[in-house]
Amino acid sequence: MPKQIKVAPVAMYVLFITQRCKKPMKIVSLTSDFMKLKFSFIAVLLFSISCSERVMENKKEKAQIDYYQFREMHLDSLGIPALIMIPNETAGIGASFAPKIYHDEGGFKWQINVGRHFNLLIEDYGDYQYLMPEFLRRINTKDIFKIEIIEKTTDYLLYKRELKTSPTQLTTYHLYGVKYLNGVYYEFTNQEEGDSKKVIDFILKSFLSFKNLNSAI
Prior knowledge:
Layout: H1 9-64, E1 70-74, E2 82-87, E3 100-102, E4 109-114, E5 118-124, H2 131-139, E6 145-152, E7 156-163, E8 171-181, E9 184-190, H3 197-209, E10 211-212
Antiparallel strand pairs: 1-2, 2-10, 3-4, 4-5, 5-9, 6-7, 7-8, 8-9
């Protein structure tokens, strides 16, 4: 018959203590996993809140822009899958005439003309993303003009310009903007000779309204 191995009471006590000591290690591991999950949840929650705040800010910005003196224009038939708001006859800038768009089929430039004063130029630059930095470098090298920046954001620059040598100090207002839409960078400018403050405000609103066709203004 096989011999029975007797375990001394002291050995049994040591074995019992060893097994008891192993259990807290599992609890620590579970606690560590719980803390990681908790931190991950908090990070996701904070990111969601941040995104929600940005969406609310964008909606608030849209709500602050009044487009009651504008009409909606779709540009998809001219090669841009977008819509834009342009002044109507109530704007008081000579926009009572039907809007005209000058564009060569297959070309990359568009000119939106509404009456005598509203002229907005759009150019397709494909995936070229350095338009704004290059313009900022160019504008600082125009020695014949005195430039004063009125408003600057990541996608547009509003500024006024005066000839340094002009005795009358004629002030003109200008917009340079870049919109990224459907994988394409579009450059926006008003006419080179500039516009009045009233006209440039309408041009800025039009620029800000440039959106995908499925986006509501």
